[in-house]
Amino acid sequence: MERDMKITWLAAGLAAALAGCAGTQKLGQTSGTEANDDPSSGGAAAPKSSDPLAAGAKAATDQAAPKRTISDDEQADFNKAIKRWEKARRDGSMKAECSSIASDFASIADDNPLIQEARGNQAAVLYECGREAEAMPIWERLAGGQKPYAPALAQLGYKAWKSGDVARAETLFMRSVEADKQLGSVSARLNLAQILRDKARRTTSVEERTRYNRDAVDHLRSVLAVDGNNLQAYSTLCYFYYDFELLEMARLVATQAIWRSEEIATGKFTGQRERLADVDKAAKAGKGKKGEKAAEEAPASAAVTVAGTGYTPEMKKALGMVYNTLGLVWLKRKDVSQAIASFRRAVDNDPDLYEARLNLAALSLNYRDYTTAEQNFRAVLSAQPKNYDAALGLGVALRGNRKFDEAEQQYLAAQQLDPQRADSYFNLALLYQEYKGTEKNNLLKAQQLYRDYLTHLRGTGKKREAERRIKDIDDTMAALEEAAKLQKEADELQKKADEQQKKLEEEMKRLQEQEKQQQGGGTAPPPAAAPATPSSAAPPVAPPAAEPAKS
Q1: How many CA atoms lie within 13 A of 385 on its CB side?
Q2: N or C terminus: which one in the chain shows less Cβ crowding within 10 Å?
Q3: If we measure between CA atoms, which residue out of 311, 299, 294 comes closest to residue 348?
Q4: Which SS3 state, helix, strand or coil, does residue 39 take?
Q5: Which of 441, 384, 433, 378 lies closest to 406, judged by CA?
Q6: H helix or E strand, kind and range, residue 387
């Protein structure tokens, strides 16, 4: 079968994956403290128990900000509000519970203004309910003053990014990191990593590209140093390693993310999967088999069991990104079955990850699984009706499923989306040449479409094949004309032969009728013979008598 659609393997759309910080802020997740930002140091020291809000958190250091006095009742009220919020999310009752939950956090913040987490969560709840106009002023107040609240700065940066002001967004994200180099700036670091990666893609300077990429990866490692369960950091780092062509590193980080998500969901921390530090160490050291082997040989630690969270929607979205990147890794390694399985898992975890759907659909086309391809291209188009690749791919899938008229309409739809792209002309030409019959009109239309393809082509593409097919159609047309001419001559000869045969049959019939009449088979007797008349001719002479033979 002709490979008429150019398959483009699509990575996860990281540019659309910037993280807002409107998520839940637990007590102690941000303290405004400075800390060692080098993940290789093993992370921050454990917080002192004098601040009950920070108990068990990783975000405090010996250089802590002034201690807060938090009563047991305030701690209990905060925890209760968090549980209400999480339950409303699970039950789908956020709209109904929005005002009440936001009010719970507001009351806590009113009673103790030092609990910035409560005020931040009030804004986050309102934002989640679609009440952005009420949430933004709260974040703006938290972001100001001598002790700006890092998550609020990050949220304002996210808002700036959404509005297209990337420069302001980057500045706000950097301020968030400066305000809290620990858990409070996690979302800011994730977003900075992506902004830096985008800069690396655009710059023409090798030195700048290297610096941007290094800084982006450092931000991701810093996130994982303080929040080892951050699946978005895993998924982004996994893609970065893939993009750097460090395929084994990408695979190891993906595997770590999958294991980590299982541990979080089930609450069974086996300990044997603690290998990310070795992956980072190998990446720093560089490169190659030695680093990969070091990561593979990381030691295991003791198992721990806690209450699992189940696979939350956020976890599934991150896992979708991880599996999509893993599929790209397997594809680079030419392991198609593993790639298909990974893309399927990506779609299973996040049906809205349309990059994964496109990858699964495109790979399915190559292996003639047209039904899977059709289903996934349709899913993409239902959400992204102007997606040219999906529109064109659906046409190919429909043609493979022998829905030729629908395929034609889909190619035309792709052509309308972007008339300057050449491949819709090629696919439509192929449909007319190979699948619409050999009628002259179809071949002529196909030939013109191939010419249109060459007119719109940028680069080499299928130029030689299109030119060959144009010539093939010329040859086919000439052969058809010659065949038509020969057929016409044959028809004329046949017509003459038929006419001669008809005459012969008519003559035979006449003779047969005449013979029947001569044999008395007619309806009237033959006429009587006329009487003889005297003739002046001499009578015939009798032969002489024979003489007897002599003995």
Answers
A1: 3
A2: C
A3: 311
A4: helix
A5: 378
A6: none
Cα gap 381→374, rounded to integer Å: 11
Distance of CA 489 to the CA centre of its chain: 57
| Cα end-to-end distance, the chain, whole Å | 106
CB 469 within 8 A of CB 453: no
**Are 18 and 158 in contact, with CB atoms under 8 Å apart?**
yes
Identity of the amino acid at 362: A
CB-based contacts of 119, cutoff 8 Å, min separation 6: 105, 106, 109, 113, 138, 142, 149
Contacts of 342 (CB under 8 A, 6+ apart): 323, 324, 326, 327, 330
The DSSP output letter for 23 is S
- DSSP 8-state class, residue 220: H
Distance, C-alpha 193 to centroid of its chain: 23
Q: How far apart are alpha carbons 358 and 340 in whole angstroms?
A: 12
Pair of tokens at residue 452: 């249109």
Tokens encoding 256: 């770590």
CA distance 123 to 212: 33
Instruction: Provide the token pair at 272.
Output: 């044997």
- Provide CB contacts within 8 A for 83, sequence distance 6+: none
Q: What is the residue-level pLDDT of the chain in tens, covering all 551 positions?
A: 444 444 333 433 333 345 554 555 655 443 333 333 333 333 322 222 222 222 222 333 333 455 678 889 999 999 999 999 988 988 889 999 999 999 999 999 999 988 899 999 999 999 999 999 999 999 999 998 788 999 999 999 999 999 999 999 999 999 999 999 988 899 999 999 999 999 999 999 999 999 999 999 999 999 999 998 899 999 999 999 999 899 999 999 999 999 999 988 888 876 544 545 555 555 555 555 454 455 445 444 555 566 677 888 889 999 999 999 999 999 999 999 999 999 999 999 999 999 999 999 999 999 999 999 999 999 999 999 999 999 999 999 999 999 999 999 999 999 999 999 999 999 999 999 999 888 888 999 999 999 999 999 988 889 999 999 999 988 888 887 777 788 888 888 888 888 888 888 888 888 888 888 888 655 555 555 455 544 444 455 555 555 555 44
Q: Which residues contact 85 (CB under 8 A, 6 or more apart)?
A: 24, 101, 121, 125
**What is the phi-psi region of residue 334: left when phi exceeds 0, alpha when psi lies from -120 to 50, beta otherwise?**
left
Cα separation values, 549 from 132, 543, 546, Å? 153, 17, 9
Per the CB < 8 A criterion, the answer to whether 274 and 224 are in contact is no
Secondary structure class of 500 (helix, strand, coil): helix
